[in-house]
Amino acid sequence: MKAAVLNAVGEKFIIEDVDIDDPIENEVLVDVKACGLCHSDSHIQENDFGFPMPTVLGHEAAGVVTKVGPEVTTVEVGDHVVGSLIDFCGRCPRCTSGRPWQCVNPAAVARTADQPSRLSRNGEAVTQFSSLSGFAEQILTHENNLVKVNKDIPFDKACLLGCGVITGAGTAINTAGVKVGDTVAVIGCGGIGLNAVQGAAIAGARRIIAIDLQNEKLALAKKFGATDTINSGEVEDLVAAVAEITGTNGVDHAIEAIGLKATAEQAVRILREGGGAYLIGMIKPGTRLDVDPFTELLMNQLRIQGVKMGSTNPQQDISLYAELYTQGRLNLDDLVARTISLDEINEGYEELRDGKVARNVIVFD
After folding, report:
1. Is residue 228 within 8 Å of residue 219, measured between CB atoms?
2. For the whole prediction, is pTM greater than 0.85?
């Protein structure tokens, strides 16, 4: 099959022939129909996180089940599915209490060391990314990493549910627990930030402030439910600008969707008493935040929380969001700037890095 292979950090994707194994046990083979270009893949491409190369990246995938292993019970051939990068065993105390994103045994979905690699090239193993590797014509994964969705949702929209939607909207709805009447600020209006905006809107927030440096993205945020926008490059004091909009000294919830030290610290400083800052951007390892634990945290009773995948139960939430889309209650259409072929992946990422588009999506015939 054709796949976009990353051979080393800092290199471009190369379209190559990669071999994919047959499903065993609880594994499922899927013909990929669409895969979104997410910033997380770009971070792996550009920064050395110690991830083994060569690899096939891509984790926002949707497609059709074409073959199943003998122990698979949740999907069958012909089902439309969305990939989920939340690895969970389904048996540990975290999983059985409804928190699969905190699974203590995520390796349960992977092949063991004595089993052949799911992906290979000329007999050599190719590392699978997030149990999916969606920048390819097919994916082979554990059934826990797939969610069956209704067939009414187009693949180029469905694929976004596997990461950007559940992370952004899930942070607002699940992690922050935004309630009717709350005030929310979202820093960074890329694909994940826009979904945090619409998650806050679905939850009933009174004011939703979108913050970004790109006016194009701020205009787009209005389509997802932002009531107010701030271009942070055009204001001298972001804290004062937020306070002026809310009529208080800050927001109840601040969601940071960029992954920078400066914006993470801003998320704390635009909070009102008792507020929460939720960090979902992919911050570089070793980054330290300059936060005063007495003045800012203790006296103002603030909290800072790192968020993994929007605290999402994928089997429940992904199918829910798919239904909301088909009902016209979840905006996915405006997330997709354009669809591209696998051969255009490098150009697609250049457009994403320019910061003016939310998502490009690879589509397969």
Report:
1. no
2. yes
Q: Among 143, 18, 13, which residue's Cα sits nearest to residue 73?
A: 143
CA torsion, points 194, 197, 201, 202, in degrees to nearest 10? 60
CB 187 within 8 A of CB 256: yes
Cβ(102)–Cβ(2) below 8 Å = no
Task: Give the pLDDT band (50/70/90) at residue 70.
Answer: very high
Q: What is the DSSP string of 206-251?
A: SEEEEEES-HHHHHHHHHTT-SEEEETTS-S-HHHHHHHHHSSSSE
Whole-angstrom Cα Rg for the chain: 20
Rounded to 5 degrees, φ, ψ at 71 are -105, 5
Confidence of residue 104 (pLDDT cuts 50, 70, 90): very high
Q: How far is CA 108 from the centre of its chain?
A: 22
pLDDT at residue 295, rounded to an integer: 86
Answer positive or negative: Cα dihedral of 154, 63, 173, 244: negative
Report the largest interatomic distance among the alpha carbons of the chain, rounded to a whole angstrom.
63
**Domains of the chain, start order:** 2-148+332-363 (3.90.180.10), 168-309 (3.40.50.720)
CA–CA gap between residue 18 and residue 16 (Å, rounded): 6
271-279 sheet: strands from edge to edge: 228-231, 207-212, 183-187, 251-256, 271-279, 303-306
Q: Render pLDDT for 210-242 as a digit per residue (tens, 0 to 9).
A: 999 999 999 999 999 999 999 999 999 999 999
State which amino acid sits at residue 142: H
Report how far residue 257's alpha carbon sits from residue 289's, in angstroms, rounded to the nearest whole number: 16
Q: Which of 210, 30, 220, 5 is nearest to 132 (CA)?
A: 30
The answer to whether 248 and 269 have CB atoms below 8 angstroms apart is no
> If you ran DSSP here, which 8-state letter would residue 130 be given?
T
Phi, psi of 322 (to 5 degrees): -60, -40
